[in-house]
Amino acid sequence: MTFVIVFFELMPERAVWSIPVKQGDEHMIAAPGSGGFSVLLMQRQEKQYPPQTKDDEYHKQSHRRRRILIVDDEPDITLAFRKALRDKGFEQVKTINDPTLALKNFKAGSYDLLILDIVMPEMDGFSLYEEIRKIDNKVKVCFITAFDINYQALRAVFPASDDLGCFIRKPVDMDDFVKRIKAEI
What pTM value is reported for the model? Predict the structure, then answer.
């Protein structure tokens, strides 16, 4: 253990001193405060990362490169979904709160996965999906909804589509949400 004695009377009024306590690990910061000096002990905290295998690194990079578009009329939902995905390594996540704007700006090959809310004003998620499929029939889709799904009625609307298996019910735990998205992508 190292002890440091600082004589505050000798320090200029606007001085901030960084005093090493342990080589490279800790510093004591002395700064003028109201009615005297404030002293803080700062410790360097290094993150411990487990060793990565080449397979782990490939999957990590693969998720970063995936482009995701989230369309939901509720900004707080899109913000929460985007944050959850970015926190788990998905770097290219775009959110739009207006389905007609999403359709207007959509270009083939722009996204690997669409996350579409089903119930939205002006255009529901299924209609948006039908229109987007006319532009890009290779993009994957995940539907999100707070309502029960009638899968038989859905099959009547989309009889030939095999990619209607991803439905996420709101509210959803964010860890479960990210797992579902990783599984789809």
Answer: 0.63
